[in-house]
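Figure 2 data, in text form.
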Amino acid sequence: MQRVSSGPYRILIVDDSPSIHEDFRRVFESLPALSSLEAAEQDLFGDPSSDKPEIVFEVTSAYQGAEALTKVKEAQERHRPFGAAFVDMRMPPGWNGVQTIRELWNVDPDLQIVLCTAYSDYRWDELLDRLGVTDRLLLLKKPFDRVEALLMGLALSEKREWIAAARAHMARLEERVRERTAALQYQAETDRLTGLTNREVFLQLLQKRIEVMRQRPGHSIDAVLFIDLDDFKIVNDTLGHAAGDELLRQVARRLRSNTRHDLRVGRPVCGRLGGDEFAVLLEELSGVEPAQHVAQRLLQVLQQPYDIFGRSVRIRASAGLAVVDARCPDAAELVRRADVAMYEAKQEGKGRVLLFDEAMSQRLWRRVEVEQRLRVAVQEQRFRLAYQPVVDLNNLHLTHYEALLRWPSGEDESPLPDEFLSVARQCGLIESIGNWVIVEACRQLARFRQHRPPGMAPRLSINIAGHQLVNPDFASHLAETMRHHGVTGPELILEVTEAELATGVTTIADNLEICRSLGIEIQMDDFGTGASSLNQLRALPFTGIKLDRTCLATCREANDYSLIEGILALARSLELTVVAEGIETEAQWQILRDLGCPLGQGYWIGRPAFHADPCSRRFPAEESTSSEVPPGTASSSDWADVSSPQPHQ
């Protein structure tokens, strides 16, 4: 028999006769030892049975039922219960056997009992009626056979141990089931990467809050904050997906730790909706203003540097805020509203939070419409390049053209460049469009060269998006396109805004260095808007800057040009060329010329057009909003038509 426990079998004898106790002790405490022959055989040959645990009984006596009950209680308290109890039927003057058994089972339901009797006081059916049908009770007639009593004690004690072992095993299994169930529930309710609430559960919790707020309006407000990381794709593309995942984990920790203890928030719930999108359910706020304060503080926390595998990474976030109100039908709609507000925040410059209003929905539908049409336009290449002249302000002679992207959609209201390029950045089409501009500009340069006199090569400046520069293959793709069309480096100028370089990744610097080594000039566009950085001018191989048109537009009198004068002095010290944008009057041209600004462009000089004169050194102002025309400019008949290809070409 394989023992469950190595301890002795504990037997309780309940009988009013001392001689019966002695009989039972002889049965259980005087087991026969090995004979001398068996011992010799075991020593000589070995006996597998010798590895089995020794059978030992521990016998306890009780002479009345009440005494037996006390001993059973003590055994239970010491966690050493009896395996079996042999109970006499008659024990005057106390309880009889049946009553004793019932009392013992009240204390120890698993106690195995043998009812011992020499009389027929009860028939077996009467015993079952009194004690119930059970497998814990056997009957032993007196006088009993020693072997029969021994086997009963052994079997019942072992049965008790197996019951205890089975129950413990079942408890362990149930605990494992509970743990596994809890783990599965956690996985079902939690985002695996960040540990935050997942989208489905977040929507369920939000729906419950909406229903609660409907039942008790006016006490407080609930709001949803929709957060999206700005330019997260750049981190993934430059540092790898492992770094991106680590960044998301750290963002989640900051969200959780910085909402849990905010006194303005009742019970915040942070969730990851997918990708780099997060949501925070702000409950029981006193008003909209506290919700906006919480949102602003979270964005400030999120833009602090992150340590990603030993590298410091900065990233901003944009957020939209939507408040639960009577007009909100469900959780999905509330999250959609917060999402719309977040997109509006990105449209206004990123790194900010906006509160949802209905006008945002109309603008979103417009964005969706433009995106759908833009995808078709990208697939079918329905774009053209317009050319605006850049001239030497001393003599108004042409220095180069700026190639400007246009989308003649064929509809009454074609989207303006600011609109469709913003949409292109948001929906991931800007790199495809930018690559088309590079190919088309190089193709046009090759065509311009055919009309140029020898030694007078045309030049084009093109605008480059930051999403292009973070691609490690950008410079090689540009060089291959130039080689294919026979374009040299000095014929190209790349214009890059400082805002496009906000991530500061090394890939951008590497691409610009390669372009500069090819002889391509590089200008910082929109300089003077407040986003430009002198550190970027020193760190990257810029050869010039372009003054943003707002710098000139804000100058009403001569003394308003002090900022421009300071920028020109800075540029001269750094040996950078300066191009002034937005020249719309002769007076502006004269002041800029007198200040020593070398180059300029604007409507007074020439509007963007789909055709340009590759031979002329001057440009007409036939489409200028000003009646003032630069002296000596050519007429419109001097323009040769070397237009861009028609759509689908």
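Caption note: The chain has three domains: 9-168, 199-356, 381-638.
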